[in-house]
Amino acid sequence: MVKPNIQHTQLAINFLNQYHPLSPKIRTKIEKELFQISYKKGQHIFGQGERCTALYFILQGVVVGYTLLNNRRLTTFICAEGDAVSSISGMYGEKPSGESILVLEDVLLLGLKVETIVDLLNTSIEMNIIIRKILEGFYKAAHERSNMVRLGTARDKYNYYASVAPQLINRVPAEYIADYLDINCKTLERILKKYAKTNDVQLARERCKLIENFLVREEGFKQQGLTIAKLSEELSIPVHQLSSLINATYKKSFNTFINSYRVIHVRTQLQNYHKWKHLKIEGLGAESGFSSRSVFFAKFKEHTGSSPVEYLKSLQQSSPDF
Asked: pTM above 0.90?
């Protein structure tokens, strides 16, 4: 285990901030306690019956969670970059885990020890909110899987999974996807052969990378007046195909999809007062790509439940020295 660099630490902080803003005090504690660790393909982060020692943020790689029951493997989740993983049944290390987490690709993780999490839960309201929402995410994913395996045919199940996790299709062995979807592996292999002929899944994955590179690395969302036609031209993807890809993959309309990146950026800026104190809040909205104050305030409240001003006040109240 090593101390993570600043960039990796910021990714973990951003992950937590998306659930609830961290006060400077709690943020400092988390930054101090975070550690970095890696595992090779085929290793277990922990096994069924062992105690979970940390909550992990995946920086790179793919892992799968599974339970063995009567010598049968039941795959319960598949996670990759940007996800958090832990034992669902023993998240706080108070009892043995009911599942194992296996590494499918070499992974790089950031960890926060369960002792630190328990301490924060006992002293921080904001951490209670964050952990509750993370757990809600775990259970929502479990509920979604439960619904997915009840879909009609094996093809129906796979089509659904391909639409919600296109970035994993070519990275996860068929046996785990089949197990996760509760379908016969040979049946899935036949389906995959048909998909391979058209290469649709691979193309969707490559296009998702283009979209995310433009929005995350290049911060393309900051362009005021960004339309789907302009993004189509920028990425050389036909408009109708780009629209279908965004709807199927991200479950959002184009405008909602772009505005979500803008809101996340504004929230991060609001938490770093020294970087924008020379601007008005409206200036942050314009810098993030919003075309007007009214649109900025409306979309920010739509995504967060509060206006930018209310959000800033909550930050100031949580930290008198803000």
From this structure: no
Q: Could you tell me how many residues make up the chain? A: 322
How far apart are the C-alpha atoms of 227 and 249, rounded to whole Å?
18
Given the structure tokens 């001003």, which residue do they identify? 309
Number of H helices, E strands in the chain: 15, 8
Contact 63, 24 (CB under 8 A): no
Judge whether 13 and 30 are in contact, CB under 8 Å: yes
Task: Give, as one character, the DSSP assignment of residue 3.
Answer: P
DSSP string, 15-67: HHHTTSPPPHHHHHHHHHH-EEEEE-TT-EEE-TTSPP-EEEEEEES-EEEEE
Closest CA to 104 of 38, 185, 182, 173: 173
Classify residue 321 as exposed, middle or buried by CB count within 10 Å of its CB (0-12, 13-18, 19+).
Answer: exposed
Q: Where are the beta strands (DSSP E) in the chain?
A: 35-39, 44-46, 54-60, 63-69, 72-79, 84-85, 100-103, 107-113
Residue 236 gets the label, from left (phi > 0), alpha (psi -120 to 50) or beta, of left
Do residues 268 and 17 make contact, with C-beta atoms less than 8 angstroms apart? Answer: yes
Cβ-proximal residues to 149 (8 Å cutoff; 6+ apart), any chain: 157, 181, 182
Tens of pLDDT along the chain (322 residues)? Answer: 688 889 899 988 988 988 889 899 999 999 999 999 999 999 999 999 999 999 999 999 999 999 988 888 889 889 998 888 988 777 777 788 989 999 999 999 999 999 999 999 999 899 899 988 888 888 887 777 777 777 678 888 888 888 778 788 888 998 999 999 889 999 988 888 776 665 567 778 889 999 999 998 899 999 988 999 999 999 998 888 888 889 888 888 899 999 999 999 888 888 876 666 666 788 888 889 998 888 999 988 888 888 888 888 887 776 655 5
The distance in angstroms from the start CA to the end CA of the chain is 32
Q: What is the CA radius of gyration of the chain?
A: 21
